[in-house]
């Protein structure tokens, strides 16, 4: 009897030790990460340290892992360049990447870890608006700047009470702007009056674009003959496309991401839909051409931050450097926005002259005419970048410059 | 006119589900395991096919065979490493292991090649036929044909060959089969090999038809295929085919009525209704539980 | 007698652990990261315990628990954010509506058995998710912003109540009826146990606590989106229960704590995070298929207050 109890107790002890060990491991890593910044009175904070810590809270796994990973590639390239050039005022940038599993709760956790354990000066992320909103309260409480490369929803920078979130900024357009540009382009340049909308209903980005497109387009005298939706990760759109075809639109607006849009365009052309399509920056990826096929993409337009064909020096340097680092891969919009986010932040830190969150925030808010890959950025009152939108047309798989629209 | 088009759309979608469901149903039939990793074998098959065409410059049929072969090996490895030890454990422990294996394959693939999608090269002629005003692509006919042929081959293997007989015996009563001199382990491995090869074929067919392949592509089709298998009567090969087609047509009809965001819910509503009113699926026989 | 002793030990231990953590937080010794991790652990433990009641005690193979988490999260968020009611009634409302949803799902689907039940519950959870995705009132895909109300005290009290109710339920006549159903449904039926009734009751109670966890979850993470409640979330909860040992409440609690810590710890290793997680999962299942604790309770090792349990392997 005693023996049995003994063995049971030892088993219990073993499991407890395992548990405590894991706890210690967890705490330990936290300490070793945070240790450097904890002891010298927050060297990650107000200066004196060797490096400036920046968190990257990204969707590296889970449903939208491909967006998060693209942004991470852009970030890595930019950090490498800045550090090669001597860093910011002699201080190197140190990126601490954290995976949020494409989940808002995990994004909150990750933001808490970055601010209270790693004591970063700023966080770049997340890729989606939802995962960014999940961090807003945390960064505000901890006086840390949050810069989202691709969270386009207006609620990211402006809270529900209508007040601007002091510490939150973004590098991308906001939804309404692109929708307006596309609607005006359709109504005025393409001179169409009957449009259909086919939006990703699982993405606030696509929904936001659809709403503003509809508003502007109907104000310009057009009518929306069909409004349909799909869900991200769908692969078969033929049923809904058949329905849209029956409504006889002259133009189809497809806000969404290239992964689905490529398939939509391919399947639409197969079903004999020949009208022009248009979408936003979510389309921009070399993969779009591969997925849809160059022929199917003819007669489609996108609004984008930039054109990789643009001879502009900043853009070409970026494209060349990116291809060099990633085995000839052409950058997509997420790569560019991740890259730009680092430079936007670096510029802010430089002008702030400090790695202190409150100072960086003030400096970022005053960003003016900063030339980046995705355009000349001026941060406005709502912490959104006012930048020029470019309308591009696909011709035989190449993006051809069409027109520029100022905000 | 539209309706013909929609039914064509539904059948094309359904034949993909059917192709994946065939393997699901086989594995379930023999060891009563919901093999969540099946959808990921499907994904691996698609990627093997992709690299075979893109990097090794194989043409379509050799690429398909390579993909089926590698998927079969992967299936057997998964069975040997992860499931074999658990054959006598609880079903739920095996299920959790299957979830673990599934996550491992997905994120292993992402670790190796990243999460970005890949565009499957168009290796088959893509012609559009006009029938009664509906556009039917040659690829969708091809996919339907592939799934019917594979189903027939499978029916033949299961009902006409020795290994098929062994499979049926093992699925009926593994212990008795062992006593009759059947090598149960080998039979189960063979089942995994065949089921996984089918998943690999489905992956390549999917790539050809839908173009986009990515590391998480197996999750949703895998789940839907399982629904299809249950719908048709799990463990029954023609049932998987019918279940897949029914599911495809139902989903297409929901979208055709303009409720595409509700499509996934509709699939599950149908599933639940079938389960409640005909618990063993469309082709399943009702068996009373014996004490 | 033993029972009363065990019970008082449980209460005492809870009070002490609450007191220690709370005083550490008030003294500022625990930074936000640790206190938040503790809250997250508490939420996960509630989820694990509530699913334990359904799978571990009653033996009903439900893999759609995230659906009830979603119901609780959304309903409580609607109460606080849209109707501007205080947090506590909102939490309760989340739990009650989730329990109703549990009844609604349970009554038709609990007639099914084994894998069919599993896939039906998974289906219901997906339906619930799609419903929220399509309701614009709660923000659709963009989700709903929620204020931060969850604190360690709320989380702890909810956890305490959950564990207390589930322990007492397990040891009551009803609990024993549920265990009888788990061990052999036909035999239980033959003994005059109203199996359908008990299955549905256990399911509804499990859903209720999942709803409570949902309320805490929604008010801890600032935003809720339908995508947070997909079937992978259900699997996460299922993993707690199975890893801990089916039929062992302390096992489920232990596994929930362990896996939350492992997951948080791995956040800093984004490239290999999910790979390590999946390998851990497979290895534990291969070498300890009955789960870390088997069907035993932690008290069995201490020789006190052995709860009702079935020693037989479950569900073969």
UniProtKB/TrEMBL annotation, chain A:
<comment type="similarity">
    <text>Belongs to the leucine-binding protein family.</text>
</comment>
<keyword id="KW-0029">Amino-acid transport</keyword>
<dbReference type="InterPro" id="IPR028082">
    <property type="entry name" value="Peripla_BP_I"/>
</dbReference>
<keyword id="KW-0813">Transport</keyword>
<keyword id="KW-0732">Signal</keyword>
<dbReference type="InterPro" id="IPR051010">
    <property type="entry name" value="BCAA_transport"/>
</dbReference>
<dbReference type="InterPro" id="IPR000709">
    <property type="entry name" value="Leu_Ile_Val-bd"/>
</dbReference>
<dbReference type="InterPro" id="IPR028081">
    <property type="entry name" value="Leu-bd"/>
</dbReference>
<dbReference type="Pfam" id="PF13458">
    <property type="entry name" value="Peripla_BP_6"/>
</dbReference>
<protein>
    <submittedName>
        <fullName>ABC transporter substrate-binding protein</fullName>
    </submittedName>
</protein>
<feature type="domain" description="Leucine-binding protein">
    <location>
        <begin position="51"/>
        <end position="397"/>
    </location>
</feature>
TrEMBL record, chain B:
<keyword id="KW-0472">Membrane</keyword>
<feature type="transmembrane region" description="Helical">
    <location>
        <begin position="265"/>
        <end position="284"/>
    </location>
</feature>
<comment type="similarity">
    <text>Belongs to the binding-protein-dependent transport system permease family. LivHM subfamily.</text>
</comment>
<feature type="transmembrane region" description="Helical">
    <location>
        <begin position="59"/>
        <end position="78"/>
    </location>
</feature>
<keyword id="KW-0029">Amino-acid transport</keyword>
<feature type="transmembrane region" description="Helical">
    <location>
        <begin position="6"/>
        <end position="26"/>
    </location>
</feature>
<keyword id="KW-0997">Cell inner membrane</keyword>
<dbReference type="InterPro" id="IPR037294">
    <property type="entry name" value="ABC_BtuC-like"/>
</dbReference>
<feature type="transmembrane region" description="Helical">
    <location>
        <begin position="132"/>
        <end position="158"/>
    </location>
</feature>
<keyword id="KW-1133">Transmembrane helix</keyword>
<dbReference type="InterPro" id="IPR052157">
    <property type="entry name" value="BCAA_transport_permease"/>
</dbReference>
<keyword id="KW-0812">Transmembrane</keyword>
<keyword id="KW-0813">Transport</keyword>
<dbReference type="InterPro" id="IPR001851">
    <property type="entry name" value="ABC_transp_permease"/>
</dbReference>
<protein>
    <submittedName>
        <fullName>Branched-chain amino acid ABC transporter permease</fullName>
    </submittedName>
</protein>
Automatic annotation (TrEMBL), chain C:
<feature type="transmembrane region" description="Helical">
    <location>
        <begin position="274"/>
        <end position="290"/>
    </location>
</feature>
<feature type="transmembrane region" description="Helical">
    <location>
        <begin position="237"/>
        <end position="262"/>
    </location>
</feature>
<dbReference type="InterPro" id="IPR043428">
    <property type="entry name" value="LivM-like"/>
</dbReference>
<feature type="transmembrane region" description="Helical">
    <location>
        <begin position="87"/>
        <end position="107"/>
    </location>
</feature>
<keyword id="KW-0812">Transmembrane</keyword>
<feature type="transmembrane region" description="Helical">
    <location>
        <begin position="152"/>
        <end position="170"/>
    </location>
</feature>
<keyword id="KW-0472">Membrane</keyword>
<dbReference type="InterPro" id="IPR001851">
    <property type="entry name" value="ABC_transp_permease"/>
</dbReference>
<keyword id="KW-1003">Cell membrane</keyword>
<keyword id="KW-1133">Transmembrane helix</keyword>
<dbReference type="Pfam" id="PF02653">
    <property type="entry name" value="BPD_transp_2"/>
</dbReference>
<feature type="transmembrane region" description="Helical">
    <location>
        <begin position="33"/>
        <end position="55"/>
    </location>
</feature>
<protein>
    <submittedName>
        <fullName>Branched-chain amino acid ABC transporter permease</fullName>
    </submittedName>
</protein>
<feature type="transmembrane region" description="Helical">
    <location>
        <begin position="114"/>
        <end position="132"/>
    </location>
</feature>
<feature type="transmembrane region" description="Helical">
    <location>
        <begin position="62"/>
        <end position="81"/>
    </location>
</feature>
């Amino acid at each position: 009897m005693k023996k049995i109890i003994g063995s049971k107790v030892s088993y219990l002890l073993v499991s407890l030790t395992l548990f405590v060990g894991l706890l210690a491991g967890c705490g330990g890593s936290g300490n070793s990460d945070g240790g450097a910044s904890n002891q010298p009175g927050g060297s990650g904070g107000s200066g004196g340290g060797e490096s400036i810590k920046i968190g990257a809270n990204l969707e590296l796994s889970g449903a939208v892992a491909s967006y998060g990973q693209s942004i991470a590639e852009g970030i890595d390239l930019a950090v490498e360049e800045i550090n090669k050039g001597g860093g910011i005022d002699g201080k190197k940038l140190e990126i601490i990447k954290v995976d949020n599993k494409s989940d808002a709760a995990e994004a909150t956790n990750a933001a808490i870890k970055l601010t209270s354990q790693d004591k970063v000066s700023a966080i770049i992320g997340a890729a989606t608006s939802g995962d960014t909103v999940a961090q807003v309260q945390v960064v505000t409480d901890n006086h840390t700047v949050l810069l989202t490369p691709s969270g386009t929803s207006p609620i990211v920078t402006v809270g529900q009470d209508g007040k601007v979130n002091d510490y939150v900024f973004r590098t991308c357009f906001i939804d309404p702007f692109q929708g307006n540009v596309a609607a005006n382009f359709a109504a005025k340049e393409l001179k169409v009056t009957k449009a259909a909308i086919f939006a990703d209903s699982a993405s606030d980005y696509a929904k936001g674009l659809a709403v503003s497109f509809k508003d502007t387009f109907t104000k310009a005298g057009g009518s929306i003959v069909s409004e349909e939706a799909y869900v991200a990760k769908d692969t078969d759109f033929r049923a809904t496309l058949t329905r849209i075809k029956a409504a006889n639109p002259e133009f189809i607006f497809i806000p969404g991401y290239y992964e689905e849009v490529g398939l939509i365009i391919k399947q639409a052309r197969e079903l004999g839909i020949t009208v022009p399509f248009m979408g936003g920056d979510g389309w921009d990826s070399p993969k779009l051409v591969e997925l849809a096929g160059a022929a199917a993409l003819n007669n489609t337009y996108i609004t984008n931050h930039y054109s990789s064909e643009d001879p502009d020096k900043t853009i070409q340097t970026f494209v060349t450097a990116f291809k060099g680092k990633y085995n000839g891969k052409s950058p997509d919009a997420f790569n560019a926005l991740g890259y730009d986010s680092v430079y936007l932040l670096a510029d802010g830190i430089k002008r702030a002259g400090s790695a202190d969150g409150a100072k960086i925030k003030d400096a970022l808010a005053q960003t003016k005419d900063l030339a980046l890959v995705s355009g000349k950025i001026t941060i406005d009152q709502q912490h959104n970048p006012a930048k020029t939108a470019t309308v591009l047309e696909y011709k035989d798989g190449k993006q051809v410059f069409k027109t520029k629209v100022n905000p | 006119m539209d309706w013909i088009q929609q039914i064509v759309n539904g059948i094309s979608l359904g034949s993909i589900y059917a192709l994946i469901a065939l393997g699901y149903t086989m594995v379930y039939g023999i060891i009563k395991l919901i093999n969540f990793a099946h959808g990921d074998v499907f994904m691996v098959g698609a990627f093997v096919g992709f690299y075979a065409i893109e990097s090794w410059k194989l043409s379509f049929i050799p690429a398909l065979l390579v993909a089926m072969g590698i998927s079969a090996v992967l299936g057997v490895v998964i069975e040997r490493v992860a499931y074999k030890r658990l054959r006598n454990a609880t079903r739920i422990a095996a299920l959790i292991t299957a979830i673990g294996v599934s996550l491992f394959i997905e994120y292993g693939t992402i670790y190796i090649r990243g999460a970005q999608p890949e565009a499957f090269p168009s290796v088959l002629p893509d012609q559009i036929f006009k029938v009664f005003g509906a556009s039917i692509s040659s690829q969708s006919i091809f996919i339907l044909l592939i799934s019917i042929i594979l189903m027939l081959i499978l029916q033949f293997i299961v009902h006409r060959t020795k290994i098929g007989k062994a499979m049926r015996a093992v699925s009926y009563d593994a212990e008795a089969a062992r006593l009759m001199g059947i090598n149960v382990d080998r039979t189960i491995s063979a089942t995994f090999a065949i089921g996984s090869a089918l998943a690999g074929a489905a992956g390549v067919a999917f790539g050809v038809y839908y173009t986009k392949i990515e590391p998480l592509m197996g999750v949703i089709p895998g789940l839907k295929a399982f629904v299809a298998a249950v719908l048709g009567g799990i463990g029954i090969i023609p049932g998987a085919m019918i279940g897949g087609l029914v599911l495809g047509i139902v989903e297409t009809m929901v979208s055709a009525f303009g409720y595409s965001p509700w499509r996934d819910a509709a699939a599950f509503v149908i599933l639940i209704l079938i389960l409640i009113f005909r618990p063993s699926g469309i082709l399943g026989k009702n068996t009373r539980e014996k004490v | 007698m033993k029972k009363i002793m065990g019970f008082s030990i449980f209460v005492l231990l809870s009070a002490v652990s609450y007191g220690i953590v709370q005083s550490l937080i008030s003294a500022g010794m625990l930074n936000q990261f640790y206190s938040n991790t503790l809250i997250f652990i508490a939420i996960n433990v509630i989820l694990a315990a509530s699913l334990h009641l359904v799978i571990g005690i009653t033996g009903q193979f439900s893999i759609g628990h995230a659906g009830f988490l979603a119901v609780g999260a959304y309903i409580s968020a609607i109460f606080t954010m849209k109707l501007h009611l205080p947090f506590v009634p909102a939490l309760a409302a989340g739990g009650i509506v989730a329990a109703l949803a549990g009844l609604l799902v349970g009554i038709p689907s609990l007639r099914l058995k084994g894998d069919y039940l599993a896939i039906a519950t998974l289906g219901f959870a997906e339906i619930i998710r799609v419903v929220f995705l399509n309701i614009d009132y709660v923000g659709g895909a963009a989700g709903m912003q929620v204020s931060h109300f969850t604190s360690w005290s709320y989380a702890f009290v909810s956890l305490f109540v959950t564990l207390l109710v589930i322990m007492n339920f397990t040891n009551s006549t009803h609990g024993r009826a549920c265990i009888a159903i788990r061990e052999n449904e036909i035999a239980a039926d033959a003994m005059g146990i109203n199996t359908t009734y008990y299955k549905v009751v256990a399911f509804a109670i499990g859903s209720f606590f999942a709803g409570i966890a949902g309320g805490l979850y929604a008010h801890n993470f600032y935003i809720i989106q339908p995508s947070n409640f997909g079937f992978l979330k259900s699997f996460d909860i299922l993993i707690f229960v199975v890893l801990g040992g089916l039929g062992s409440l302390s096992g489920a609690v232990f596994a929930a704590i362990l896996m939350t810590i492992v997951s948080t710890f791995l956040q800093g290793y984004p490239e290999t995070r999910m790979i390590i997680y999946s390998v851990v999962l497979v290895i534990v299942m291969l070498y300890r298929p009955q789960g870390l604790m088997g069907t035993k309770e932690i008290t069995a090792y201490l020789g006190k207050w052995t709860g009702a349990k079935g020693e037989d392997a479950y569900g073969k």
